[in-house]
Amino acid sequence: MADPILMPKATAVWLVDNTSLTFEQIADFCGLHPLEVRGIADGEVARDIRGADPIANGQLSREELDKAGASPAYRMKAQKSRHAELLKPVKKGPRYTPVSRRQDRPDAIAWFLRNHPEVTDAQISKLLGTTKATIETVRSRSHWNSANIKPVDPVTLGLVGQLELDALVRKAADKKTKDDLKKGIVAPEGPTLLPASETGAPDHEEEEERRPQQHTAASLFGNKPASEDDDDLGDDED
After folding, report:
1. Are 137 and 143 in contact (CB under 8 A)?
2. Which of 3, 166, 182, 200 is at a distance of 20 to 30 A from 38, taking alpha carbons?
3. N- to C-terminal Cα distance for the chain?
4. Cα(104)–Cα(98) distance, rounded to whole angstroms?
5. What pLDDT, in 10s, does the model give residues 190-214?
6. Where is region (Disordered) located (predicted)?
7. Alpha helices for the chain (secondary structure H)
């Protein structure tokens, strides 16, 4: 069998229940081992799997099934299913950037280099549809238009979508975290205190300003010298 069929075990369940084909014929068509097909027939394998009709889903013709039923040595040939073609992953081609937007790519490259250094050149190249050589010229400021290059979000420039950008940044961050763990580098959790050499000694003047003022009796009732009070008392006695 050249192309694998959809739902091989479910197809084998259906063929075991609805045909008189040999285990070898079913195994060959479904891409399974004959013992596995025997296990399906005995109820030991794929017990909870519902059978899938290969004729109804376009993977087997009635003529092929009749030929196999008439001759145990005949091996059925699967035909290409319309459903199988739809389920095949579509390989993305190179990203096309309109000519009017191509002049904005250096700005987007500069944005990546400044804000997300964890994103690799290969990832930037694939996302923006540029080349590694262009990325290097922007990084080394040897680009012919370096004087006018400014970091701008590629979403703002219309080069990529926000979801696509977020997915790429998240993927690059996860990879960097795994690489750092392999190297024994662990990022600190939460904010950390600055060393004393950077913070410096506390300012005594600021401490004096923050310290609450202590009020004394003299400060509350005036700083009049005690001698003057005595004089006043002497005058009253006279």
Report:
1. yes
2. 3
3. 135
4. 10
5. 554 444 445 444 455 555 555 555 5
6. 174-238
7. 8-18, 23-30, 34-42, 62-70, 82-87, 99-102, 105-115, 121-128, 132-139, 154-157, 162-182, 196-199, 204-210, 217-221, 226-237
Number of structural domains (the chain) is 2
Residue whose C-alpha is closest to residue 145's, from 113, 97, 99, 106: 106
pLDDT tens figures, 17-51 = 999 999 999 999 999 999 999 999 988 888 788 88
Same structural domain, 19 and 47: yes
Cα(238)–Cα(158) distance, integer angstroms: 99
Quick one: 78 and 103 in the same domain?
Answer: no
The reply to whether 112 and 81 lie within a common domain is no
pTM score, two decimals? Answer: 0.42
Helix axes 121-128, 105-115, angle to 10 degrees: 150
Average pLDDT over residues 92-104: 64
- Single-letter amino acid code for the residue at 204: H
- CA max distance for the chain: 149
Q: Which of 132, 148, 182 is the last residue of a domain?
A: 182
Using the 3D structure, point to which of 162, 182, 202 is the last residue of a domain: 182
